TrEMBL record:
UniProt superkingdom: Eukaryota
Matches recorded under PROSITE patterns: CRAL_TRIO (PS50191)
InterPro entries: CRAL-TRIO_dom, CRAL-TRIO_dom_sf, CRAL/TRIO_N_dom, CRAL/TRIO_N_dom_sf, PI/PC_transfer
Protein name in UniProt: CRAL-TRIO domain-containing protein
Origin species: Dioszegia hungarica
Organism ancestry: Eukaryota, Fungi, Dikarya, Basidiomycota, Agaricomycotina
Classification via Pfam families: CRAL_TRIO, CRAL_TRIO_N
Annotated ranges, domain CRAL-TRIO: 104-298
Length: 381
């Protein structure tokens, strides 16, 4: 019989209240007030951005995440949003993602949860983190880094190099993976609800007490950053492979994380893993290691060939169909409004921009839900 925590995880399968397309009248009213508040205080502009100058400075998905994180408290959400906007400018977060060294980006990716190229039944991306793969040597090198490869001389940010590398991973989630999953039409509520969160499978098999303690700072940094500047990007964390001593140390481990993050963690016994994951995911999308059918090894690049997402992409010449390249990836708008997938980052200090492929969905509609492009409005007429 599943534990109460597992029942809670499975019972909340549907999209929760507070997401676009699922706002109550009072939540919608609060959201409208929040946008007006941000506009009045010059933290947000409803127009003047994008290729036609008719898009807002921040999309509704991001704005709503801040409001939801503060339980629809307008002043609290405004302060967090304003602080984040200032933080992004001070650290040139968009620039960091554009010029970070691809090799360094990949070495960081191996230290954190990784998208496996699959989705749950709602279209939410599934990330896997095998904690046992982390070793003291890699963590020490990461913690002691004093600079980033490829950093331009014009960069004036004061943030430690290890955190800049971590920022890049969150930028990949919010600016690549989530829009990509949002662009898929074969999912529930595809027309009204963007994908704004991720599910995480955290495998702690074989992790000893000393390793847990050694990873304290590493895990705290990620949790603190997400809570402060990327709020509400986490749907659930399924913790599996817990050692026998884990219930004893859980009381102090959970103090490393924000209470909201802790509330989204579900510790599964061995017998609960496959039944619980199957409630959320199709069997072919669950790694074989956890009882599913997906060939997946931690650290490999997402393979979209058999997961449905790869069929959406018109792959550029020379690209292997379904395979994403190493390094940061972002979306750009084609002249006709389509979404263009671009591999950015730098190699040997030289910034790169390699087109991976194109998705035949309108850039404005995916990144700014509810705004139909001129091309599609013409079709409707």
């Amino acid at each position: 019989m599943p534990s109460s925590s597992t029942q809670g995880a499975a019972g909340a399968y549907q999209y929760p209240s507070g997401h676009l397309g699922h706002l109550s009248p009072s939540q919608q009213a609060s959201f409208d007030q929040f946008k007006q508040l941000c506009t009045d205080r010059k933290a947000y502009s409803p127009t003047g951005h994008g290729p036609k100058g008719d898009l807002p400075s921040t999309d509704d998905v991001a704005l709503l995440r801040f409001l939801r994180a503060r339980r629809f408290d307008l002043e609290g959400a405004f302060k967090q949003f304003k602080d984040t906007e200032e933080w992004r400018k001070e650290n040139d977060i968009e620039g960091v993602y554009r010029w970070i060294d691809r090799e360094e980006y990949e070495s960081t990716r191996r230290l954190y949860p990784q998208w496996i190229g699959r989705r749950d039944k709602r279209g939410v991306p599934v990330y896997v983190f095998e904690v046992g793969n982390l070793n003291s040597k890699d963590i020490a090198a990461y913690e002691q880094a004093t600079s980033l490869k490829g950093t331009p001389s014009s960069y004036t940010g004061k943030t430690p190099a290890k955190l800049l590398r971590l920022f890049a991973l969150y930028e990949n989630l919010t600016n690549f993976a989530l829009p990509f999953l949002t662009s898929a039409t074969d999912r529930p509520y595809a027309d009204v609800t963007p994908i704004s969160q991720s599910n995480n499978i955290v495998d702690i098999s074989g992790v000893g007490l000393k390793q847990f303690w050694d990873l304290k700072t590493h895990m705290q940094d990620a949790s603190t950053l997400a809570t402060a500047h990327y709020p509400e990007t986490l749907d659930r964390i399924f913790i599996i492979g817990a050692p026998s001593f884990f219930p004893t140390v859980w009381s102090w481990i959970k103090k490393w994380f924000d209470p909201i993050v802790v509330s989204k963690m579900f510790i599964l016994s061995d017998a609960e893993v496959l039944p619980t994951l199957s409630d959320f995911m199709e069997i072919q999308d669950i790694p074989k290691k956890y009882g599913g059918q997906l060939d997946y090894t931690f650290g490999q690049m997402p393979n979209l060939a058999a997961g449905g997402m790869g069929e959406m992409v018109e792959w550029a010449e020379g690209m292997e169909k379904g395979m994403l390249p190493a390094g940061p990836i972002k979306w750009e708008r084609a002249e006709n409004g389509d979404m263009v997938m671009v591999n950015v980052g730098s190699v040997g200090g030289v910034e790169k921009r390699d087109v991976i492929g194109t998705v035949k969905r309108q850039w404005e509609e995916v990144l700014f839900p509810g705004r139909k492009s001129r091309r599609n409005r013409g079709r409707e007429r």
